[in-house]
Amino acid sequence: MISGMTSSVCLRDFTKDFFLKQEKRLTEVYPGLTLSILYRYLEGYGVERQMSLDHLFDQVYTPGPHNLWTVFFQQMEQGVPLEYIIGRAYFYRSEFYVNQHVLIPRHETEILVEFVLAEMKRLALESPDDLKVCDVGTGCGAILLSLMRDSHRTVQGLGIDLSLEALKVAKRNDFYLRFTRSKNSHSRFLLSDRLSEVTEKQHVIVSNPPYIPWSFAKENVHPQVKRYEPHMALFLPDEIYEQWFTEFFQQVDDLLFQGGVFMMEGHEDQLENLLKILQKCSFKQVMIVNDLTGRSRFLKALK
Ligand SMILES: C[S@@+](CC[C@H](N)C(=O)[O-])C[C@H]1O[C@@H](n2cnc3c(N)ncnc32)[C@H](O)[C@@H]1O
Q1: Residues 107 and 237 in one domain
Q2: Do 190 and 58 fall into the same domain?
């Protein structure tokens, strides 16, 4: 559709035309998309490529295979998530670089950051030490780097992932956000299957692990998510689901300091089962925590 066009047009007009001509299809693929939101993404795309915002939309656009904007619109036609197209996503109070090796951080996960920050405040009152905070399945680093940014106490942060490519993204974000935290806080990133490579005890272990069972994903996950986001970040085969979490919770149990806390996001339908597994470990207290809409969303364990 785009490659066939050659005449020059102002970018704003082209974008408007592009959106209005296929609004129904685009809003199916990108729920909630409006023309003004699309303009904002376009701006983000320009900024990422160091284009000045002045006159961005007034510039003359000549569609063609080597034009950057053509790449933008072609990717939209294929349904690539807008965050991947512009290479950025917003989470909590920061902007994160993202690519197709990492999950696009979800707003639902921001509340997990809030809950964990409250626990970190409590832990800071109980001990004068730096807080050791470990994020299992760190992806682009959204949870760990947000916790480090808003912590009142110095943090020694550890981000873990089984994907080397995800760790590269997390390290890039760590570099971008290094000035957002106290100067004595430090972070490091480790390739590990859950906590198997970790030996140092932690005050806080947080995780948004892959928690969607494959059988559920088949029917219920948006096709765009299945097509573009890393499956390793989202899904677990049903056959290994229970075993995977049993091993993970055992590792958490072994690695938390007394008084430490574990929090993870989970699948609403699975939390009761996972709670039973947590109850078999040696935690003082375990519970399901609701999100702000009252839905079961998280697990919490106090050591
Ligand atoms: C749901 S994503 C969460 C990403 C990020 N923490 C967030 O909340 O946006 C899960 C992450 O866990 C990682 N992962 C999957 N299996 C893992 C394993 N066995 N050990 C460590 N990380 C794993 C994936 O690569 C992915 O980055």
Answers
A1: yes
A2: no
Rounded Cα distance between 165 and 196, Å, is 19
Pick the closest to residue 140 from 175, 104, 116 (CA basis): 104
CA of 245 to the centre of ligand 1 (A): 13
pLDDT in tens, 235-286: 999 999 999 999 999 999 999 999 999 999 999 999 999 999 999 999 999 9
Name the token pair of 146.
């947000």
Q: Which of 101, 103, 174, 298, when mutated, tests ligand 1's pocket best, judged by the most ligand atoms within 8 Å of its CB?
A: 103
Which of 162, 195, 198, 263 maximizes ligand 1 atoms within 8 Å of its Cβ, making it the mutation to test the pocket? 162
C-alpha of residue 264 to centroid of ligand 1, in Å = 12
How many domains does the chain fold into?
Answer: 2
Tens digit of each residue's pLDDT (9 = 90 or more) over 148-183: 999 999 999 999 999 999 999 999 999 999 999 999
pLDDT of residue 2: 55
Residue 1, domain member (yes or no): no
Same domain for 259 and 294?
A: yes
